Amino acid sequence: MSQRNGAVAVAEPMSPGAEAVGNAIETVASHLHPRVSWNLDDHPVPTGREEVWRFTPVDAVKGLLTSGPTGIELDCELRLPAGVTAGFIEGDAVRAAAVEPPADRTSAVAAANTDRARLVQVPAGLELDEPIELNFTGTGVDGFAYGQTIIEVGAHATAQILLRYEGSAQVADKIDVRVGEGARLDLVTLQDWAPDAVHVGQSSLLVGHDATVRTVQASLGGAVTRMLERASYESSGGELEQFGLYFVDSGRHVEHRLFVDHNQPLSRSNIDYRGALQDKGSLGVWVGDVLIRKEAEGISTYEANKNLLLTEGARAESIPNLEIATGDIEGAGHSSTTGRFDDEQLFYLRSRGIPEDEARRLVVQGFFVEIVRRIGIPEVAERLIAVVERQLDAIAPDWGAQEPAS
């Protein structure tokens, strides 16, 4: 049983990657966290009427919903610090190394159309002082690109990883990240696509015992983006922070669906996603779900989503969820806000001689600065600030043409 925008007690659903044994695991499907499976037939082609697809422009991604001939792969340029290895694994080795099977139709199609996965490994105990980079580039939208990437961070290692997407493509991919005991990982995903790109994907994160993980997801380009971001814990004591920012304009669609499975005691999570939206037909979707299982005693979690509507016609859908199966927790909460520019902030800036357009720009910059400063990788933070500035340069001329949404 679940409820939108609220906290409710729930029966135990199937855990990621688990198979039902007798009556030990509840197998009733949930629209918040459907059953994962490598079998493509377990993921029917969506019509758009399903709860998990009702916001998605299904027609725009229909080419990535069917399993045709094996597609192309995105070009990938690697930047690997000393000690880090990368290569490919195939067949059964891919499934064995993955955190979990696909959780929706597009990730299942990606897995069905690729018989290998790129494997990046950070050895145990290695402390990196420069980021690992995987720069993916699309070369056109005429075909379909599929990919699988698996990242393993060994016990007590320290790593910073940047995944960057750019160019034009129609792509479905699946990314699995394992973080070992006591390791520290900063994972930044930057979607800097061309305006015609379509990207649907699933990322699955497994947080080890006493590991500390921070992720940043920045969706700043493309026509349609739909990302499933899933996380669970391998043992107790894991800490997870997830931050995100997105711009949506020119009728674009950006959709982030998060699922944090508190399946271990004394685990922690904190989520903060922020979006800026403008132009008629633009839609930003954020759906967060935190599941606190009965064995997850002593956990703490909070999820937040904030949306800033820059002009009339833009729309934001924000749906936080909490599913709680135990009362023995440290804390759990969520919040969601959607609104226009803060009149008091604008008045304060304009009263000091700052022109209105520049004042609005400063408000948007301030809206995102808390996310950017949490990245923790100066080189990546500077790069992301440059992309944000480019986005502001592109959208700011339209602010004076329309009244802000009420």
Q: Any overview of this molecule?
A:
Residues 141-367 form the SUF system FeS cluster assembly SufBD core domain. 15% of the residues lie in helices and 41% in strands. With 406 residues, it is an alpha/beta fold. The chain has one domain. The strands form two sheets. It has a ten-stranded mixed beta sheet. It starts with 6 loop residues before the first strand and ends in an 11-residue tail after the last helix. The model is unreliable at 1-28 and 401-406 (pLDDT under 50).
**Average pLDDT across residues?**
86
Going across the major beta sheet, what is the strand order?
1-18-16-14-12-10-8-6-4-3
> In total, how many beta strands?
19
Shape: globular
Tell me the count of domains.
1
Low-confidence stretches: 1-28, 401-406
H-E order: EHEEHHEEEEEEEEEEEEEEEEHHH
Family: Belongs to the iron-sulfur cluster assembly SufBD family.
Protein name: SUF system FeS cluster assembly, SufD
Organism: Propionibacterium ruminifibrarum
Pfam families: SUFBD_core (PF01458)
